[in-house]
Amino acid sequence: MGKAEGKAEERENGIKILITTLQAANFTKGMTKNVVIEKYQLTEDEADKYMQLCWNE
C-alpha cells in the first residue's frame, strides 16, 4: 500500500470513528453530519454517504 492510499484509509477510518463517537455522545444526526463536514471538508453528498454507512438507527 502506498503512502497516499494509507492516508486515504486513515482519513476514512477517522470519519467513521468520529461519527460513531458523536452518536455515542448523543449528538443528533444533523449535528454529527455538520461536524464531519467541517472537520474533514466533505461535501453534503460525501457526508451523507458516511452517515449512511456508520449511523446506527
What does it look like?
By secondary structure, the chain is mainly α. 79% of the residues lie in helices and 0% in strands. It has one domain. It has helices at residues 3-24, 29-40, 44-54. The model has no long low-confidence stretch (mean pLDDT 94).
How would you describe this structure in keywords?
79% helix, single chain, mainly alpha, 57 residues
The amount of beta strand, in percent, is under 5%
- What is the H/E order? HHH
The secondary-structure class comes to: mainly alpha
- Give helix % range: over 70%
Count of DSSP helices? 3
* Spans of at least 5 consecutive residues with low confidence: none
The coarse overall form would be globular
Terminal CA distance reads 34 Å
* Assembly state of the chains shown: single chain
Number of strands: 0
- Integer-rounded radius of gyration: 12 Å
**Average pLDDT value?**
94
Main pleated sheet: none
Task: Give the topology.
Elements: H1 3-24, H2 29-40, H3 44-54
Helix pairs in contact: 1-2, 1-3, 2-3
Summarize the structure.
With about 55 residues, this protein is mainly alpha-helical. It has one domain (about 5-55). Helices cover about 80% and strands about 0% of the residues.
